[in-house]
Specification:
single chain; alpha/beta; elongated; about 30% helix; 6-stranded antiparallel β-barrel; about 30% strand; 5-stranded parallel sheet; 6 helices; about 250 residues
Length: about 250
Protein backbone atom coordinates (compact mmCIF):
# COMPACT_ATOMS: atom_id res chain seq x y z
CA UNK A 1 0.00 0.00 0.00
CA UNK A 2 1.09 3.62 -0.41
CA UNK A 3 3.35 5.36 2.06
CA UNK A 4 1.74 8.15 4.02
CA UNK A 5 2.04 11.52 2.24
CA UNK A 6 3.94 14.26 4.07
CA UNK A 7 2.11 17.51 4.86
CA UNK A 8 3.70 20.65 6.30
CA UNK A 9 1.39 22.48 8.73
CA UNK A 10 2.13 26.12 9.54
CA UNK A 11 0.74 28.10 12.49
CA UNK A 12 2.24 30.11 15.38
CA UNK A 13 0.01 28.31 17.92
CA UNK A 14 1.71 25.07 18.94
CA UNK A 15 -1.39 23.70 20.71
CA UNK A 16 -3.38 24.09 17.49
CA UNK A 17 -0.59 22.45 15.48
CA UNK A 18 -0.61 19.52 17.87
CA UNK A 19 -4.35 18.90 17.48
CA UNK A 20 -4.18 19.35 13.71
CA UNK A 21 -1.33 16.82 13.58
CA UNK A 22 -3.46 14.28 15.47
CA UNK A 23 -6.31 14.70 12.99
CA UNK A 24 -4.11 14.51 9.89
CA UNK A 25 -2.26 11.46 11.19
CA UNK A 26 -5.61 9.73 11.68
CA UNK A 27 -6.31 10.62 8.05
CA UNK A 28 -3.22 8.57 7.14
CA UNK A 29 -0.80 11.48 6.63
CA UNK A 30 2.67 12.20 7.97
CA UNK A 31 2.83 15.67 9.52
CA UNK A 32 5.67 18.14 9.98
CA UNK A 33 4.47 21.08 12.14
CA UNK A 34 6.17 24.45 11.54
CA UNK A 35 5.72 27.65 13.56
CA UNK A 36 7.54 29.95 11.13
CA UNK A 37 6.33 30.74 7.62
CA UNK A 38 9.85 31.92 6.82
CA UNK A 39 11.27 28.45 7.55
CA UNK A 40 8.59 26.65 5.57
CA UNK A 41 10.04 27.41 2.12
CA UNK A 42 13.42 25.90 3.03
CA UNK A 43 11.78 22.90 4.69
CA UNK A 44 9.64 22.36 1.61
CA UNK A 45 12.77 22.30 -0.57
CA UNK A 46 14.33 19.65 1.67
CA UNK A 47 11.37 17.46 2.58
CA UNK A 48 9.33 17.67 -0.65
CA UNK A 49 5.87 17.53 1.01
CA UNK A 50 2.74 16.61 -0.91
CA UNK A 51 0.92 19.67 0.47
CA UNK A 52 1.10 22.62 2.89
CA UNK A 53 -1.67 23.64 5.30
CA UNK A 54 -1.14 27.17 6.61
CA UNK A 55 -3.08 29.58 8.80
CA UNK A 56 -4.23 32.74 7.07
CA UNK A 57 -3.84 34.64 10.35
CA UNK A 58 -0.20 34.30 11.41
CA UNK A 59 0.74 36.82 14.12
CA UNK A 60 2.68 39.67 12.55
CA UNK A 61 3.04 37.86 9.23
CA UNK A 62 1.29 37.89 5.87
CA UNK A 63 0.35 34.38 4.77
CA UNK A 64 -0.51 35.68 1.31
CA UNK A 65 3.05 37.01 1.02
CA UNK A 66 4.25 33.50 1.85
CA UNK A 67 2.01 32.09 -0.87
CA UNK A 68 3.35 34.59 -3.42
CA UNK A 69 6.92 33.63 -2.47
CA UNK A 70 6.09 29.94 -2.81
CA UNK A 71 4.61 30.43 -6.27
CA UNK A 72 7.74 32.30 -7.35
CA UNK A 73 9.91 29.28 -6.45
CA UNK A 74 10.32 27.23 -9.62
CA UNK A 75 10.68 23.88 -7.83
CA UNK A 76 7.76 24.56 -5.44
CA UNK A 77 5.41 26.58 -7.61
CA UNK A 78 2.92 23.71 -8.09
CA UNK A 79 2.88 22.59 -4.45
CA UNK A 80 -0.77 22.35 -3.25
CA UNK A 81 -1.67 24.75 -0.42
CA UNK A 82 -4.74 24.73 1.84
CA UNK A 83 -5.40 27.75 4.07
CA UNK A 84 -7.25 27.84 7.37
CA UNK A 85 -8.93 31.02 8.55
CA UNK A 86 -10.65 32.26 11.70
CA UNK A 87 -11.93 35.39 9.93
CA UNK A 88 -13.51 35.01 6.49
CA UNK A 89 -12.34 38.18 4.74
CA UNK A 90 -13.50 37.89 1.14
CA UNK A 91 -10.70 39.94 -0.44
CA UNK A 92 -8.05 37.74 1.16
CA UNK A 93 -9.87 34.60 0.08
CA UNK A 94 -10.11 35.80 -3.52
CA UNK A 95 -6.39 36.64 -3.56
CA UNK A 96 -5.50 33.26 -2.05
CA UNK A 97 -7.55 31.45 -4.68
CA UNK A 98 -6.03 33.56 -7.46
CA UNK A 99 -2.62 32.38 -6.23
CA UNK A 100 -3.64 28.77 -6.67
CA UNK A 101 -4.76 27.95 -3.13
CA UNK A 102 -6.72 24.68 -3.20
CA UNK A 103 -9.24 25.75 -0.55
CA UNK A 104 -9.73 28.20 2.33
CA UNK A 105 -11.29 26.37 5.27
CA UNK A 106 -13.02 27.95 8.26
CA UNK A 107 -12.37 27.07 11.89
CA UNK A 108 -13.63 24.87 13.37
CA UNK A 109 -12.79 22.66 10.41
CA UNK A 110 -15.59 20.74 8.73
CA UNK A 111 -14.33 17.17 8.40
CA UNK A 112 -15.88 16.43 5.00
CA UNK A 113 -14.56 19.68 3.48
CA UNK A 114 -11.08 19.01 4.87
CA UNK A 115 -11.13 15.52 3.39
CA UNK A 116 -12.28 16.85 0.01
CA UNK A 117 -9.56 19.52 0.01
CA UNK A 118 -6.89 16.91 0.78
CA UNK A 119 -8.09 14.73 -2.10
CA UNK A 120 -7.77 17.72 -4.44
CA UNK A 121 -4.12 17.96 -3.35
CA UNK A 122 -3.54 14.59 -5.10
CA UNK A 123 -1.84 13.09 -2.07
CA UNK A 124 -2.01 9.62 -3.59
CA UNK A 125 -0.84 9.61 -7.22
CA UNK A 126 -2.46 6.24 -7.96
CA UNK A 127 -5.99 7.34 -7.02
CA UNK A 128 -8.06 9.64 -4.86
CA UNK A 129 -9.52 8.19 -1.69
CA UNK A 130 -13.17 9.06 -1.97
CA UNK A 131 -14.19 7.89 1.48
CA UNK A 132 -13.03 8.81 4.96
CA UNK A 133 -11.03 6.15 6.78
CA UNK A 134 -9.91 5.95 10.39
CA UNK A 135 -7.63 3.82 12.57
CA UNK A 136 -9.70 0.93 13.93
CA UNK A 137 -7.74 -1.43 16.20
CA UNK A 138 -10.45 -3.94 17.02
CA UNK A 139 -10.97 -7.72 16.63
CA UNK A 140 -13.32 -8.70 13.81
CA UNK A 141 -14.78 -11.93 12.50
CA UNK A 142 -14.61 -12.86 8.83
CA UNK A 143 -17.29 -15.30 7.69
CA UNK A 144 -16.37 -17.19 4.53
CA UNK A 145 -17.58 -20.51 3.11
CA UNK A 146 -19.46 -21.37 6.28
CA UNK A 147 -16.50 -20.84 8.61
CA UNK A 148 -15.58 -18.00 10.94
CA UNK A 149 -12.02 -16.65 10.91
CA UNK A 150 -10.60 -14.21 13.43
CA UNK A 151 -8.79 -11.08 12.29
CA UNK A 152 -7.62 -7.76 13.70
CA UNK A 153 -8.81 -4.57 12.04
CA UNK A 154 -6.30 -1.85 11.11
CA UNK A 155 -8.43 0.82 9.45
CA UNK A 156 -12.12 1.27 8.74
CA UNK A 157 -13.65 3.40 6.01
CA UNK A 158 -17.19 4.24 4.98
CA UNK A 159 -16.95 1.54 2.32
CA UNK A 160 -14.43 -1.03 3.53
CA UNK A 161 -11.98 -2.37 6.09
CA UNK A 162 -8.31 -3.39 6.24
CA UNK A 163 -7.49 -6.34 8.51
CA UNK A 164 -4.48 -8.39 9.56
CA UNK A 165 -4.80 -12.16 9.38
CA UNK A 166 -1.96 -14.75 9.36
CA UNK A 167 -3.45 -16.65 6.42
CA UNK A 168 -5.03 -14.10 4.08
CA UNK A 169 -8.05 -14.93 1.98
CA UNK A 170 -7.87 -15.18 -1.79
CA UNK A 171 -8.39 -12.11 -3.93
CA UNK A 172 -12.03 -11.82 -4.94
CA UNK A 173 -13.37 -13.86 -2.02
CA UNK A 174 -16.94 -13.02 -0.96
CA UNK A 175 -17.16 -12.59 2.81
CA UNK A 176 -19.25 -11.26 5.68
CA UNK A 177 -17.48 -8.99 8.18
CA UNK A 178 -18.78 -8.83 11.75
CA UNK A 179 -17.59 -6.54 14.55
CA UNK A 180 -18.89 -4.77 17.65
CA UNK A 181 -19.33 -1.02 18.06
CA UNK A 182 -18.35 0.85 21.25
CA UNK A 183 -22.01 0.72 22.38
CA UNK A 184 -21.96 -3.12 22.01
CA UNK A 185 -24.08 -3.01 18.85
CA UNK A 186 -22.97 -5.69 16.36
CA UNK A 187 -22.50 -4.76 12.71
CA UNK A 188 -22.37 -7.38 9.96
CA UNK A 189 -21.82 -6.37 6.34
CA UNK A 190 -21.07 -8.23 3.13
CA UNK A 191 -17.82 -7.59 1.30
CA UNK A 192 -15.26 -8.65 -1.27
CA UNK A 193 -11.50 -9.04 -0.86
CA UNK A 194 -9.88 -6.48 -3.19
CA UNK A 195 -6.27 -6.51 -1.94
CA UNK A 196 -4.05 -9.20 -0.40
CA UNK A 197 -0.76 -8.78 1.44
CA UNK A 198 0.66 -12.29 1.92
CA UNK A 199 4.03 -11.82 3.60
CA UNK A 200 6.22 -14.69 4.67
CA UNK A 201 8.67 -15.39 7.49
CA UNK A 202 9.43 -12.47 9.78
CA UNK A 203 6.90 -10.31 7.94
CA UNK A 204 4.00 -12.74 8.34
CA UNK A 205 2.54 -10.67 11.20
CA UNK A 206 1.69 -7.89 8.72
CA UNK A 207 -0.17 -10.18 6.32
CA UNK A 208 -3.75 -9.17 5.69
CA UNK A 209 -6.47 -8.14 3.28
CA UNK A 210 -8.51 -5.13 2.27
CA UNK A 211 -12.24 -5.78 2.01
CA UNK A 212 -14.62 -3.56 0.10
CA UNK A 213 -18.28 -3.21 1.11
CA UNK A 214 -19.98 -2.90 -2.30
CA UNK A 215 -23.65 -3.34 -1.31
CA UNK A 216 -24.42 -1.57 1.95
CA UNK A 217 -27.93 -0.90 3.16
CA UNK A 218 -28.76 2.74 3.87
CA UNK A 219 -28.72 1.99 7.61
CA UNK A 220 -25.34 0.22 7.48
CA UNK A 221 -23.82 2.99 5.36
CA UNK A 222 -24.99 5.65 7.81
CA UNK A 223 -23.75 3.62 10.80
CA UNK A 224 -20.30 3.20 9.28
CA UNK A 225 -20.07 6.86 8.30
CA UNK A 226 -20.95 8.00 11.81
CA UNK A 227 -18.51 5.52 13.37
CA UNK A 228 -15.62 6.60 11.13
CA UNK A 229 -16.22 10.27 11.94
CA UNK A 230 -16.42 9.51 15.66
CA UNK A 231 -13.11 7.64 15.48
CA UNK A 232 -11.48 10.54 13.66
CA UNK A 233 -12.71 13.55 15.60
CA UNK A 234 -14.75 12.46 18.62
CA UNK A 235 -12.20 13.53 21.21
CA UNK A 236 -11.17 16.61 19.20
CA UNK A 237 -14.77 17.82 18.95
CA UNK A 238 -15.40 17.29 22.64
CA UNK A 239 -12.34 19.30 23.67
CA UNK A 240 -11.54 20.20 27.25
CA UNK A 241 -13.01 23.64 27.73
CA UNK A 242 -11.23 24.86 24.60
CA UNK A 243 -12.77 25.72 21.26
CA UNK A 244 -12.69 22.58 19.10
CA UNK A 245 -10.63 22.67 15.91
CA UNK A 246 -13.00 20.41 13.98
CA UNK A 247 -16.64 19.47 13.70
CA UNK A 248 -17.88 16.20 12.21
CA UNK A 249 -20.19 17.53 9.47
Amino acid sequence: MSERPLILTVDDNQAFLGKLAVLLERLQCEVLPVTSARDTIELARVTRPRAIIISMQLAGKDSLAFLRTLRAEEELADLPVVMITTVREQRQIWEAMSLGCIEVLDLPLELDRLHQALQRCNLYPEARRRHLRAPFARPVEILVDGTVRAANAITLSERGIMVRMPQPLALGSSVEVRFSLPDAQVVQVGGEVIYVRDNQGAQAASAGVAIKFPRLTIKSAETLKMLVKQLLVGDLVAGHGEKPIVRPG
